């Protein structure tokens, strides 16, 4: 009985290793660097940070790619990823017409005294406003940061790597900062 369980465990491990061997990578380089990279509708993270492109592991095969930034038009393409190879994508997003004010600012708070250093540093979890990708957590978590939004009420969804999922309705008022607290 014990031998059968070990053989079953070894078989499952080999299947997982075989699946891992069929993975490849995607690397996107372009402007803006921090555009959100989505593969088959799933957010992977920013295309790059501080002009350095990120490299993401994905299953080999055909994939739908979306690069999104709220200030630009979305970029969509299809790529085929080969096992153990890196598929490179070049992009340049076209600027959108800027929204009209008045504006308020949406920011994420960490429950600490105000600081210009993000308590969510490195947290590239996505932020969606009314279902549209708007950036990632550590972009909006410091006293000097935030997202300018036209006055109105919004549905905010945050998928933070450090603070979990947050779903909240917020009302943005002209010339005011609205803070959504981050709690562990």
3D architecture notes:
The protein is 11% helix and 50% strand. The protein has 184 residues and is mainly beta. It folds into two domains: 22-92, Immunoglobulin-like (Sandwich); 103-181, Sandwich (Immunoglobulin-like), CATH 2.60.40. A hairpin with a 2-residue loop joins strand 11 (126-129) and strand 12. The chain starts with a helix and ends with a strand.
Short description:
The chain has 184 residues and is mostly beta strands. The chain contains 1 helix and 16 strands.
**Helix count from the secondary structure assignment:** 1
Mean pLDDT: 85
- Count the E strands: 16
H/E series: HEEEEEEEEEEEEEEEE
The percentage helix is 10-25%
Main CATH class of the largest domain: Mainly Beta
Strand content: over 45%
- Termini Cα gap: 44 Å
Largest sheet: 4 strands, antiparallel
CATH T-level fold name of the largest domain:
Immunoglobulin-like
The coarse overall form would be: globular
How many domains make up the coordinates?
2
Structural class: mainly beta
Low-pLDDT stretches? 1-7, 9-18
Q: Based on the structure given, which CATH architecture of the largest domain is correct?
A: Sandwich
Q: Provide the spatial order of strands within the biggest beta sheet.
A: 3-2-7-8
Q: Supply Rg.
A: 20 Å
